[in-house]
Amino acid sequence: MNPFPSLAEYERFVYTLQSRYSSVSRSALTVVRRGAKTALLTGDLDVNGYRLVLREKLSFAETTGQIISYGYEVWRGTEKLYWYDSQAHPDDPSLASTHPHHKHVPPDIKHNRIPAPGLSFLAPNLPFLIREIEGLLEEK
Fold first, then answer.
1. In total, how many domains does the chain have?
2. pLDDT tens track of the chain, all 140 residues?
3. Sign (positive/negative) of CA torsion 2, 85, 32, 28?
4. What is the Cβ-side half-sphere exposure of residue 108, based on CA atoms within 13 angstroms?
5. 105 part of a folded domain
6. Alpha carbon of 4 to those of 18, 54, 88, 93, 123: distances in Å?
7. Minimal CA–CA distance to 32: which of 17, 45, 15, 46?
8. In this structure, is residue 67 part of a structural domain?
9. From CA 117, how far away is CA 98, in angstroms rounded?
């Protein structure tokens, strides 16, 4: 099954997250169409007391949809815990295994980057991100 069969299917996927994940207590996500084959996904989710703020640029110009770029931030209250982005860092060999997908983590969150093997341009990232946040509670 194609995870991005159409823009309409991706919208349906996004707008039903809360009914499929009991850990999602609030969703303020919006898919904004930018023409027949492109869209922006923006907004945030409350997941088990954490807030996931996200932005995706999507294209459905090919036969399968894909994420063109993204940024995902995870917050607890006013503290940004970590974030993911798809900005390439070709000069950092430690990120080559998942290029360009990477995660920014403490202690120097802006400059401390690690590979992000769970993210993709070819499949929705939200299930992975929600499961990761659900795991934060299990670690406590």
1. 1
2. 456 788 888 999 999 999 999 999 999 999 999 988 899 999 999 999 999 999 999 999 877 789 999 999 999 999 999 999 999 998 899 999 999 999 999 999 999 999 999 999 999 999 999 999 999 876 65
3. positive
4. 3
5. yes
6. 19, 18, 23, 31, 7
7. 15
8. yes
9. 6
